[in-house]
Every structure is written in C-alpha cells, then in structure tokens.
Design brief:
It comes from Camellia lanceoleosa. With 336 residues, the chain is mainly alpha-helical. Helices cover 54% and strands 10% of the residues.
Length: 336
C-alpha cells in the first residue's frame, strides 16, 4: 500500500486509493451508499441502459453498415466515463457522442457553475440523500475543501472508467480467440432475455465467470500487484503460498443452468480483499455484463489487427492495449 501511494500521490493525493485510517473509513462509508441493491438497480436500468441504447448501439449500427473500423478501447472508455460521471457526480459529459468538441475551457467553466448551482438547489429540496449523487453526499457531509473534493473526483473517475473499460477491452479480445466461449454467451442472453434488465445481468453466471477469468489473465491494476509467499505464524503454523487460480464456472446440463464456483478474494485478488475490497465490485460486474449482453445480442466484435499481430499489454495504473483495439462490427444473422 505504501509503495502504491508514493507512486500515485501526485494524482490521487488524499483520495480513497491512497489513504488509511479515519480518512479512508469516512470516504468508504459515504461511497457505500451508492452500492446498495436499490442504487445498483437504478444504475443498470437508467444510467447504463440509456447509454447503451442511445449511444453505444447506434454507433455500432453505423459502423456495421459502413464497414468502418472502431477503436473499441476508446469507445469503451467513453462509455464508462459517461456512466461514472452520471452516477457519481450527477453530470452527463456526453463523451460518447460523435460531435465536434467545443472550446474546452469555456464549456467546462460554464458547466461547473451550472452544476454547482443545481446541486445546491437539489440538496435544499431533498429531505434525504437517498437519490442524490455521490459527490453531493460528500459535500453535504461538510467536506467541501476544493483539494479534497478534487481527490475524490479523480479517484472515482479512474475507478469507474479505466478499470471496467480495460476489463471489457481484454474480454472482447479473448472471446474473439475462443469462439466456443463466445457462442455460449448469446445462449445465456437468450435464456435471460425475458427478465428485466437488472435481473437479466444479475443472472448471467456464465458471462460472469468468463469476465472473471479474463481479469485474472489481464489484471486491471497491474502496478498494485499481489504476490503470494510462504509464511510462518507466531505459533509456528506454516502458511503455504497459493497463486491466483482459474475461476471455474461449473455448468449443469439440466435446463442449461450454470453455477459459479468462485475463488475467495485472497486467492483471486482482482478486486482486493479484506476491509479494502472494492465497494464497486458488484456495480462493475453489472455494468460489464450489461455491455456484453447489449453488444453480443446483436453484433459480433471482430478484431481488425494485421495478420499475425497480437495486442500488447501495457501496465499503466490500469491495463491498456497499446495503440488501441481496432475492431469491425458485424450484425449477427439472428439477434437474440
């Protein structure tokens, strides 16, 4: 933790990733309100579904019709950026819109003034904080110091944008190399398609296992690595190291039901473990599964690398695909 904090203190400062003790406890307690079942359902059914149907799917339809190549890594980052800003800060940056950018500073200044005024008005009208965004919760707690709020914003944007987009980038690359897995996912989508969107993605167990395995192979935060070592407790008990293992989906053929046999978080530390386990884990999985469901229901994502070229894994704060992920979008012969 200390090494990671020193490496990132200029960027994160006193954000939740870099602090311990009461400061960390306070930030986690406030943030935890965004990750209850009611908030997660709202996130999927209003934020993610809107971004998916109004922006991502139309872009894919256009790319499929015009046979254009997209940088899928960039598209996913834009998608995730819009989502985290909506749910955490009550603001839609519309980053996924294919429109020409305006003068950035003027737009940002006007937007900041407008949003600040709207937030003060909203807090005055609400009898509780149940329906306001994450940033409003922090501000209403009395923590309005500009540097502190900036640290929070940076931390949650990184957590909400870069990690999920990285996971999906490598996931779509991997399933393109494993057609047996890619073919199973639309079957699961078809089975769950009668359910409401929240229930549908929650029950996509095979897809959940596939995403988990992808994140084991391509860690989301590679610089914050964990390494298993042998140890001896004070009473003489010997503890043997156990490396991260494959995440197994145990499939039953009766009714095509699938059971997930997941590893404990210390064996599978993608989302950390113990008190610092990622509070947004469930939100991340719901968002990723909703994207997988929405995309693979109608399209095939086909890598457009040159022949015999494989993507290069870049270990930044979050994992990246060097040079982006060029893809072609193809309409499925039969939509699920």
């Amino acid at each position: 933790m200390y090494v990671f904090a020193k490496l990132t203190e200029v960027l994160f400062s006193d954000g939740i990733f870099n602090v311990d003790g009461e400061n960390w406890k306070f930030q986690r307690q406030v943030a935890s309100h965004e990750f209850n079942t009611k908030s997660l359902r709202k996130f999927v059914e209003t934020v993610v579904d809107t971004e998916l149907s109004d922006r991502l799917i139309p872009i894919f339809c256009s790319a499929a019709a015009n046979k254009t190549v997209l940088d899928f890594q960039d598209i996913l980052q834009r998608f995730a950026f819009d989502n985290i800003c909506k749910i955490a800060f009550g603001h839609d940056p519309a980053y996924l819109l294919p429109s020409l950018p305006q003068e950035k500073f003027a737009v940002a200044f006007d937007a900041a003034a407008r949003i600040s005024g709207q937030r003060k008005q909203e807090l005055g009208e609400k009898s509780s904080l149940e329906s306001v965004d994450l940033l409003s919760r922090f501000l209403s707690s009395g923590h309005s110091d500009e540097n502190f709020v900036t640290d929070i914003v940076i931390s949650f944007i990184l957590a909400g944008r870069d990690t999920t987009s990285a996971a999906l980038t490598w996931f779509f690359w991997l399933i393109s190399r494993h057609p047996d897995v890619e073919n199973e996912i639309p079957k699961e989508i078809d089975e769950e398609s009668e359910a409401a969107s929240f229930e549908e993605v929650k029950n996509m167990v095979y897809t959940h296992a596939s995403l988990s395995e992808s994140m084991r192979l391509y860690p989301l935060v590679p610089v914050d690595r964990k390494e298993a070592v042998d140890d001896v407790l004070p009473d003489g008990t010997v503890i043997k190291k156990v490396p991260p293992r494959e995440v197994v989906g145990n499939e039953r053929r009766d009714g095509r039901k699938v059971e997930l046999r997941a590893r404990d978080p210390y064996t599978y530390p993608v989302f950390q473990a113990g008190p610092r386990i990622c509070p947004g884990k469930d939100m991340a999985f719901l968002q990723m599964k909703r994207v997988v469901s929405g995309v693979l229901r109608r399209f095939k994502v086909v890598p457009a690398f040159e022949e015999d070229v494989e993507p290069v894994f870049m270990a930044h704060l979050t994992s990246k695909m060097k040079g982006g992920f060029p893809v072609r979008i193809e309409e499925r012969a039969e939509s699920f």
